[in-house]
Amino acid sequence: MIIPSAFxxxxxxxxxxxxxxxxxxxxSLVRSDEDTGLPAIxxxxxxxxxxxxxxxGWFVLKRTIRVMRPxxxxxxxxxxTGTAVGSQRHDRTHGxxxxxxxxxx
Length: 105
Known about the structure:
By secondary structure, this protein is mostly helical. It contains four helices and no strands.
């Protein structure tokens, strides 16, 4: 059976994005420290055995877990203008801990 030459571009346009998606998902799985509730070996098998859907499933679940995770960031406290720690004026006039100016400055 002879395959028409029109199938070559179609084959290329279907297989290459799936291969790239699969390799990207595997790299993401290896670097990930996400707790998805399922072991990493399960995700490895799903991504390898069902290339397109397994990879998309991994990215969707990873995103869902990241969104649902509570944030543990502390609030950012703004400092008054001109009193930044490490600034030239601050270090020369008050030393690194504040207080009275150092002699000779």
